[in-house]
């Protein structure tokens, strides 16, 4: 069995996978603001998985991975922290750390033909670029590029991320939004960064994931076309990361 840990900005998800990629068990808890509190919560939740024969563990982090375990979190002021030691104290197996956008890209684009750009619209805007089962770049931060929308200049993720859309429309979940005008607005927000990405990476496919991937079919018809590029809904809009953890674990097992 394989254990996947997806550390998100608001929630942390733990999933136990079978050898064949079936989710056997899940646990979710709030990601605390303080690192010590988060670490205590993580360890307590992991203890319930100790009774299983875990082959390896993959941890998805929203930031930079260095030396496999020293990480910098994009949504927290947690720099150069050690997650490996506490996890290894609970499990006697290999533990791998990888950027969450890269892992989601592995899952969503691993078997697609040509070059694929995967974008996740969640708390921020992230993702990755993959071709032939391999990441094209490790430096992919499209959400920080500045665009002008409604007369104001902001980073793309402050315009098009699910969190930004929820704030603008005063709703708890952007996925609950409906109506032609709202879908047209969402499409315009998401489209802002797509031409630049297409120009730089020349993808065959752009996958629009994260929470906004759940309502892809509602706004996709309003997205302006980009020649040679196909827009696509993700296979698992809100679980691409944990399934990417499984793909990564199997890949490491074969190396």
Total strand segments: 15
Fraction of residues in β-strands = 25-35%
Radius of gyration: 18 Å
* Arithmetic mean of pLDDT: 91
Put simply, the count of helices is 10
Global morphology: globular
Q: CATH superfamily assignment of the largest domain?
A: ATPase, nucleotide binding domain
CATH top level label of the largest domain: Alpha Beta
Please mark out the parts with pLDDT under 50 across 5 or more consecutive residues, or reply none: none
* Main β-sheet, spatial strand arrangement: 3-2-1-4-8
| Main sheet attributes: strand count, strand direction, barrel closure | 5 strands, mixed
So, CATH architecture of the largest domain?
A: 2-Layer Sandwich
**Strand and helix order:** EEEHEEEEHEHEEEEEHHHHEHHEH
Would you tell me which CATH topology of the largest domain applies?
Nucleotidyltransferase, domain 5
Tag the structure with descriptive keywords:
five-stranded mixed beta sheet; Nucleotidyltransferase, domain 5; 255 residues; 32% helix; alpha/beta
């Amino acid at each position: 069995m394989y254990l996947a840990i997806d550390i998100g900005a608001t929630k942390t998800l733990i999933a136990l996978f079978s050898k064949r990629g079936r989710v056997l068990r899940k646990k979710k808890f709030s990601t605390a603001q303080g690192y010590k509190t988060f670490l205590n919560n993580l360890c307590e939740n992991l203890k319930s998985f100790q009774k299983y024969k875990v082959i390896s563990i993959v941890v998805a982090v929203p930031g930079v991975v260095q030396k496999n375990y020293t990480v910098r979190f994009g949504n927290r002021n947690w720099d150069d922290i050690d997650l490996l030691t506490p996890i290894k104290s609970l499990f006697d197996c290999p533990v791998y750390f990888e950027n969450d956008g890269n892992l989601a890209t592995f899952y969503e684009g691993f078997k697609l033909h040509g070059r694929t750009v995967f974008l996740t619209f969640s708390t921020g805007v992230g993702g990755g670029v993959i071709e032939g089962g391999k990441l094209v770049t490790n430096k992919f931060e499209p959400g920080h590029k500045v665009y002008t929308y409604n007369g104001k200049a902001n980073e793309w993720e402050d315009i098009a991320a699910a969190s930004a859309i929820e704030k603008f429309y005063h709703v708890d979940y952007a996925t609950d939004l409906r109506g032609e005008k709202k879908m047209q607005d969402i499409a315009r927000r998401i489209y802002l960064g797509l031409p630049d990405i297409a120009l730089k990476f020349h993808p065959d496919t752009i996958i629009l994931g994260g929470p906004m991937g759940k309502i892809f079919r509602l706004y996709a018809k309003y997205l302006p076309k980009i020649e040679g590029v196909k827009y696509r809904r993700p296979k698992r809009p809100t679980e691409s990361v944990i399934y990417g953890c499984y793909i990564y674990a199997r890949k490491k097992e074969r190396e």
